[in-house]
Amino acid sequence: MRFLWQKLGFYLVALWAALTLNFFLPRWMPGNPVDIMVSKLAQRGEVTPATRHAIELLLGMDSSVPIWQQYIDYLQQIFRGDLGVSVAYFPTPVVDVIGQTLPWTVALVGLSTLISFVIGVGLGMLAGWKRGSWIDNMVPSLTLLQSIPYFWLALVLLFLLGSVWQVFPLNGGYDIYTTSPGWTWDFVSSVVYYGTLPALTIVISSVGGWMLGMRNMMVSTLSEDYILTAEAKGLRPSRIRLTYAARNAVLPSVAGFAISLGFVVAGSVVTESVFSYPGIGSALLSSVNNADYALMQGIFLVVTISVLGANLLVDLLYTVIDPRTRARA
Amino acid sequence: MSTATQDPALAAAAATTQPRRRRTLPPMTPKLGVGLAITIVIVLFGTLGPLLVGSPSEVRNIGMTPPSSEFWLGTTQTGQDVFAQLAHATRGSLLIGLVVGVLTLLLSSFFGVVGAFAGGWTDEAFSLFTNVMLVIPGLPLVIVISSYVTQKSVWMVAIVLAITSWAGSARVLRGFTLSVRNRDYVLASRVSGESSWRILTVEILPNLVPLLASQVVFAVIFGILGEAGLSFLGLGATGSFTWGTMLYYAQNGLALRLGAWWWFVPPGLMLAVFGAALALINFAIDGIINPKLRDGTREQRKRWRMTKEQLRESEEEVQ
């Protein structure tokens, strides 16, 4: 139980750090985002002094109030779920923009990361179990695949499978001409069809890393004494492989998976930029291009919070699969 | 695996090989050789290349020509020499990698090694800070920071990348330092009255060198790829030439749709080949850090001069 509280405490500290960073960043940086935002807003309609004040509050640029007061106001605003109004998608509130784009990213990048993890760990287990087999010899070449910059791999695959052979669509999240969002068969199949190529690029570029890590841990675990004991007892090799070796070898990979969840949304920026996918990464980019600081900060916050939440979940899961972490606490 | 070495025949075969010396440098394997060779060629190209080629930004009225004897890698949409651009881009990207590597080394060894060595309250604070930095997503933070700064130099981009990427390797270093710190010989030198500074630099640091080397190689790869990604999104350093900016201009100049492969393939290939070369070097370093990965491989057993039958027998025994 104490372990649980420690974990919760840590994530609260991390959350506070992220919120504070988000608050202080606009102040540390040169330039005045408020003027840029107000001039952007003015192009689309009248800007009332109240709006300007709201922007100042949001960006921490209100010079009439002492800084600690601004900080408290900012925290209160965040906890009310008020992230301001987007400029790029004016007059939609930032919260709505994020609500529309987040599911796309979580579904696409989250699922493909999970698929890549499962395939990579599975192959790594087999490679470590039989050193020198053909699967094991695949490891170096698969790791080399990893050094190919992701966006370049995606571009080349898009060029080959989208332009040259036209197997997959060039961009977008679904067929906007013949289907409309909803839980219909047409829409869902269209989403799957449009999402296959982006998902494929993510899996190809990340599977090698999982495989290498799992393979190396498997090799280390196999030289432990308890494996020898298990062999001496005459257990079936498949049982030794799965229950004795793989179960222990997979632990660092699970911890790595938690960290890689942070890259789900981070990596999605590049993926979605290449494939023009309607996710949160595209929204982040368009907010940067439009100097939409409210949306940018909002997305950064949501990304951080989801990463922290995912990490917390994996930490809790870890106590279930590795009892030693419970015993130590 | 240990069953194999307990076999008397194998032990005898192993005994005939030369006595093992302490390894300070990784053994020269084919992998390491290829990795080093590629790295050296690319570094030479990046340092000497820009001196030998013409101006990378000179505009000519021959746009999008395929490779020819005059322009080895063809021209861009506005008639710029792709080969000249590639030489300058190589220099830019290598510079970024170098700066990110050095900064990451400094930051991660400060927070990882010093924290773990000092122990107590300092360690708690450093470790908390590292873990917080680890869970705050890096790329979005980089994007947010770089969007506030409109005029960015190459140094600025490198520093931002280093700040957001040191935490992972600090955690690795901390774990390893903790295990070294509690070994008997360190305790012995403490008892014999060596100063903390001497214990840190003479007793502990040499053990960390392979790990540090591999972390630096990772940091260089990360820095170069990170900068490329950032530049590709149009958020890189202003007015610089890197592999990432080349790809950005190629993408914006519709090189893909027009099939101008000579424009977008070379920078991507350079990134991939350089990354692969560094990864190969890291394989060799991994063998030092974790000897279990090295021993008992097929290659190793062949070196013990066993016949094929013996090799097969020993492998059957292992399984």
Task: Note down, in words, how this protein is organized.
Chain B: Keywords: Cell membrane, Membrane, Transmembrane, Transmembrane helix, Transport. The complex is a heterodimer of chains A (329) and B (319). Chain A is mostly helical and 329 residues long. Chain A has helices at residues 2-28, 33-42, 49-59, 67-79, 94-129, 134-147, 150-164, 185-222, 225-232, 237-275, 280-289, 293-321, 323-328. In chain A, helix 2 (33-42) runs antiparallel to helix 3 and helix 5 (94-129) runs parallel beside helix 12. The model of chain A has no long low-confidence stretch (mean pLDDT 79). Chain A is built from 13 helices and no strands. Chain B is built from 14 helices and no strands. Chain B has helices at 2-6, 8-16, 30-52, 82-118, 120-135, 138-148, 154-163, 166-181, 184-191, 196-232, 243-252, 261-289, 298-303, 308-318. In chain B, helix 4 runs parallel beside helix 7 (154-163) and helix 11 (243-252) runs antiparallel to helix 12 (261-289). Chains A and B meet through helix 1, helix 6, helix 7, helix 8 and helix 10 of A and helix 5, helix 6, helix 10 and helix 12 of B.
Q: What is this structure's SSE topology?
A:
The complex is a heterodimer of chains A (329) and B (319).
Chain A: H1 2-28, H2 33-42, H3 49-59, H4 67-79, H5 94-129, H6 134-147, H7 150-164, H8 185-222, H9 225-232, H10 237-275, H11 280-289, H12 293-321, H13 323-328
Chain B: H1 2-6, H2 8-16, H3 30-52, H4 82-118, H5 120-135, H6 138-148, H7 154-163, H8 166-181, H9 184-191, H10 196-232, H11 243-252, H12 261-289, H13 298-303, H14 308-318
Helix pairs in contact in B: 3-4, 3-12, 4-5, 4-7, 4-8, 4-10, 4-11, 4-12, 5-8, 7-10, 8-10, 9-10, 10-11, 10-12, 11-12
